[in-house]
Structure formats: C-alpha cells, structure tokens
TrEMBL record:
InterPro entries (alphabetical): 2-oxoA_DH_lipoyl-BS, 2-oxoacid_DH_actylTfrase, Biotin_lipoyl, CAT-like_dom_sf, E2/Pdx1, E3-bd_dom_sf, PSBD, Single_hybrid_motif
Keyword Protein transport found: no
PROSITE patterns the record matches: BIOTINYL_LIPOYL (PS50968), LIPOYL (PS00189), PSBD (PS51826)
Cofactor entry: (R)-lipoate
Record-stated family: Belongs to the 2-oxoacid dehydrogenase family.
Known EC number: 2.3.1.-
Name the UniProt record assigns to this protein: Dihydrolipoamide acetyltransferase component of pyruvate dehydrogenase complex
Domain annotation Lipoyl-binding: ranges: 2-77, 126-201
Keyword set, alphabetical order: Acyltransferase, Lipoyl, Transferase
Organism: Algibacter miyuki
Spans annotated as Disordered: 216-256
Pfam families: 2-oxoacid_dh, Biotin_lipoyl, E3_binding
Domain Peripheral subunit-binding (PSBD) per the UniProt entry, residue ranges: 262-299
Record's compositionally biased regions (Low complexity): 236-256
C-alpha cells in the first residue's frame, strides 16, 4: 500500500523546504519513527521522521533541492510495489494516497477515516484548512483560541487561531483570503495534523456538504486533492449505512451488519486509553458511528450485583486530567531516550566557597546580577569546548562532534518541562547568559517560545537546587550525549587543611550516553568543570 510523503510544514511560517540530507536511501526498510531526512526550513534544520513503515520506493527531492510544502518528497510502500501510477501524475501530491482494498480481512474495529472523507469536487473558491504541523514532533494540536469567527472576512496573513502544540502555543496565520465559513474544532478541542480545522471561501457559499464529508477522525483532504478524489467511487460507508434498518431514530447500536464496530480513529484511541468496551457505547455520529464525545460522555451502567450486600461508607474519588500536547511529547521523548541510550551516571561534590564569594563581588557591580545557574552554564560551555566528545550526538552510522556549544537549560512550566537553548554559550559573558536565560524562561512560562529557541542544543543543564534538592539524576535530552543535574548548595562540615570547618558544597550528577561518552571521558569533563566552578575567576581570563 503505497503512501505519498509530502514536504512537511515544520514551522508556522514555512512555505518551502530544502533537503539538507537523506538519512535513508531508496530500497531501505523504514520503521515508524525512523528519521527520513534533515529538512532545512526558514528557521532551522530539523529531523523529519516517518509516520509510516515499509520500503523507501522513491525520493522526489534530492539533497540540496527545494520544494514547496505539501509537494512530493518521497513514496513508501511494499518492496517491489508498482508506483508508476503515482509518478505519472507529475510527481506532486497534496495528500497521502493509499490504495484501498475492500476484500481483505478487516480488523475487529473498523475505522471511519478515508471512507467518509470528501469524494466530490469542492465548490469553486472553497479552501479546506487543515491542522498544521507547527513543530517537527507535532502529531496533533489543540485550538487554544480562535481569533476569527464564522462569517468574518479573512485576509492572507491574518491570524486565524492560536494552536497549542507539543512545544508551545503558536499563532497560525491564514494563507488564503475569503470568508470563514466553517470551524471544525471548538476552543479546547484537539485533532491530528492534517485533519479538518476550518473552511474558507466566498461569502454565502454552502459548505455543509463539505463539512459533513469530513470528521475530526478523518485525514482532511486539502484543496489540491479533488482530482485524485474524483477517481474514487462513492464513499464506502454507504453500503454500511444501507445495511441498517430504515428508521427515523438514531441507529441503536454502532455494530454493523458484518459484526464490526463503526468508530472514528480518535474515539477508538480514547476508548483504548480509558479501557472502554466499544460494543457497550452508543454512537451519536452519522449512521451510529462512535465519535470522540461518545467516549468522553460514556458512563457504564450501574451494577445491581451489590444489592443486599454491605456497602462501605467511603467513596473512591479521582479527577482525570487530559494530557496536554506538551506532556505527551515529554513522555514520548524521555521514554525513547531512556530505552535507547545506555545511561550511566557520574556524581561529584564541588567546594562552592570561592563561587559564593565570586558571585557576591560580581553582583556588587551596578545593574549586574548573575545566578549560580549562570555560573554553571558558562563553566559547562567552556568545559565542553575542551571535551568535544561530551558535546556530541549519536547517529546510526556516525558520531557528530559539535564544534559549537549550544547549552539547553531545563525550565519547569505548568504543563511540564521545556528546554530553551542558549546559543554559543561559550562565547557569551556571564551577564549575557543570565539575561538570555531569564528571557527564555519568561517566554517558556508564557508559552511564547518559538521552535528555533528550543532546538539545536548540544548539552543540557537541569537545576533543581532552587527547590532544595541536594542530588538527583536526569534523563538525557536526546540527541545530546549528556545532561548535568545540579543540586542545592549545602552548608556542612568539611575537612580543610586537616581541620573540620563549616563549608559549602554542591553535588552534581552527569548522565552520559555510553555510546558516545566513555566513563573516563565523562570523568575528565567533570574535572575540567570542577576547575571552573571552584575557581570561577578563571572563566574571565
């Protein structure tokens, strides 16, 4: 089943992309999540991962070449599959093209996806706007706020809505002009990338048929797709509907005549997460299809089995909180890091007396304020220049030793954790680092960080000292090879010159990827770091 992979929109302003490097070649096996290529956008060069598996059958854009968003990038399918029909169309595709089969054995649950999508020509001038991919890892988005309402006039470049991604809340601008005729998602609702978001067209145009042919579970067909869609037969959901008894009331059950459940993919996923048996759910969608709201509103019937039995006076109580896009992204990234990178940990304890004195003297300068975290970031940056192995990245076929130093600084936000990046940290002064960290942290807490401000780190610092944590370990922020965990400065008895005196120490733990950083290499890095932190004046030389 051949799948056309189009040039993705990896930033909110991206209109075209350049293939910087292919990580796979024609004939290679592709697994879901594999990095296909590095794409240069208008903001950064990003890794583009595959959402499909199969064999890479065709590459439509060579390294160094540029193409517009949604034009043909590659084709993935079964080994030896004939794709001449896809290529003869001119090489451009605006939507995934999947060969449909109706005679194959169907799964227990039938997904209502392409089958219910639009198969007719769109009315003249009507544009279907789909959920954009606003970050390289975004799989679905949530409408935080609509800036336009149905009936409003929309100009090219107007902000339609604020979209919450897995990394930040971003403004999404319109690339078309017209009237906002239909809104497919309400504020707070979520949909996967490329699903229906809105419809724009000439004022007064009836788009009820277009909107009805889409669902929040179906991959939205963009405006370039009608030619391909026109070749399809009538929606395959029609025979399913015809098999139901004719009645003016909603279908009493979502189970079709052949025993399969008619459900949207999003509702199916929610049901799996909640452990709900779909055959017990009443569908409220078209033809009795189970949709998202049916799962969210489902309540199992109360059991009478406990009648006459002792019922405890206590009551179990809990609150379900939907995972935000950021929380889902954090879970995916950290799980991938923990189970793919062989972590090991090196712990040290530094004498902070000189650092405390240095900071006090430095902050006595008018209009100057640096934190201990700024000192650690600067020290790490200088130490990384001396130990490029720690400033590295692992790839399947190579190891990249970075000559530049971009330090990611973990920042806690209400939804989880983000890692804005201080670029070229080794070249910045302590006040410059302090100002950059404060600005980035402020943007992070207001969800105003841009993708460019969160990309490209070569090393990460995570500091929980301000929360009173003495020591901890962190999971590596891939593709970095290491992350430094910084604890609190503790007053304690120490031995100096054979005497027990009151001292101040700080514990640090370095998590390393053993594929790139050996134990001795990590230890040498910490020794260099010790020299800078215990004698910070050396950072000014």
């Amino acid at each position: 089943m051949a799948i056309v992979v189009n040039m993705p929109r990896l930033s909110d302003t991206m209109e075209e992309g350049t293939v910087a490097a292919w990580l796979k070649k024609v004939g290679d096996k592709i697994e879901e999540g594999d990095i296909l290529a590095e794409i240069e956008t208008d903001k950064a060069t990003m890794e583009f991962e595959s959402f499909n598996e199969g064999t890479l059958l065709h590459i439509g854009v060579q390294e160094g070449e540029t193409t517009k968003v949604d034009e043909l990038l590659a084709i993935i399918g079964d080994e030896g599959e004939d794709i001449s029909g896809l290529l003869n169309g001119g090489g451009n595709a605006s939507a995934e093209v999947k060969e449909e089969t109706t005679e194959e054995a169907a799964p227990e649950v039938e997904e209502a996806s392409e089958e219910t999508a639009a198969s007719a020509e769109l009315p003249e001038g009507v544009i279907v706007v789909t959920m954009p991919r606003l970050s390289d890892t975004m799989e679905e988005g949530t409408v935080a706020t609509w800036l336009k309402k149905v009936g409003d006039s929309v100009e090219e470049g107007d902000i339609l809505a604020e979209i919450e991604t897995d990394k930040a809340t971003m403004e999404f601008e319109s690339f078309q002009a017209g009237t906002l005729l239909y809104v497919g998602l309400q504020e707070g609702d979520s949909a996967k990338v490329d699903e229906l978001l809105a419809i724009i067209g000439p004022a007064g145009t009836d788009v009820s048929g277009v909107a009805a042919s889409f669902s929040t579970a179906a991959p939205a067909k963009k405006e370039e797709a009608p030619k391909a869609e026109a070749k399809k037969e009538a929606p395959k959901s029609a025979p399913v509907a015809a098999s139901k008894p004719k009645t003016s009331a909603p279908a009493p059950t979502p189970v079709t005549a052949n025993g399969r459940v008619y459900v949207s993919p999003l509702a199916k996923k929610l049901a799996e997460d909640k452990g709900i048996n779909l055959t017990k759910v009443q569908g409220s969608g078209e033809n009795g299809r189970i949709v998202k709201r049916d799962i969210e509103n489902y309540e199992p019937a109360a059991s009478a089995a406990s009648a006459g039995k002792f019922v405890p006076s206590g009551q179990e109580d809990f609150d379900d909180v939907d995972n935000s896009q950021m929380r889902k992204a954090i879970a995916k990234a950290l799980t991938n890091s923990k189970f793919t990178a062989p972590h090991y940990y090196l712990s040290v304890e530094f004498d902070m007396e000189n650092a405390m004195s240095f900071r006090g003297q430095f902050n006595s300068i008018p209009d100057t304020k640096i934190s201990y975290n700024d000192i650690v970031v600067k020290a790490c940056a200088l130490a990384l220049k001396a130990h490029p192995q720690v400033n590295s990245q692992w790839f399947a076929d190579k190891m990249r030793l970075n000559n530049h130093v971009h330090v990611g600084v973990a920042v806690a936000v209400p939804d989880g954790l983000v890692v804005p990046v201080v670029k070229f940290a080794n070249e910045q002064t302590l006040p410059q680092i302090g100002a950059a960290v404060r600005e980035l942290a402020g943007k992070a807490k207001n969800k105003k960080l841009t993708p460019d401000e969160m990309q490209g780190s070569t090393f990460t610092v995570s500091n929980l000292g301000m929360f009173g944590i003495d020591t901890f370990t962190s999971i590596i922020n891939q593709p970095n090879s290491a992350i430094l965990s910084v604890g609190n400065i503790v007053e304690k008895p120490v031995v100096k010159n054979g005497q027990i005196v009151v001292g101040h120490t700080m514990k640090l733990s370095l998590a390393c990827d053993h594929r790139t950083v050996d134990g001795a290499t990590g230890a040498q890095f910490l020794q260099t770091l010790k020299g800078y932190i215990e004698n910070p004046v050396t950072m000014l030389v």
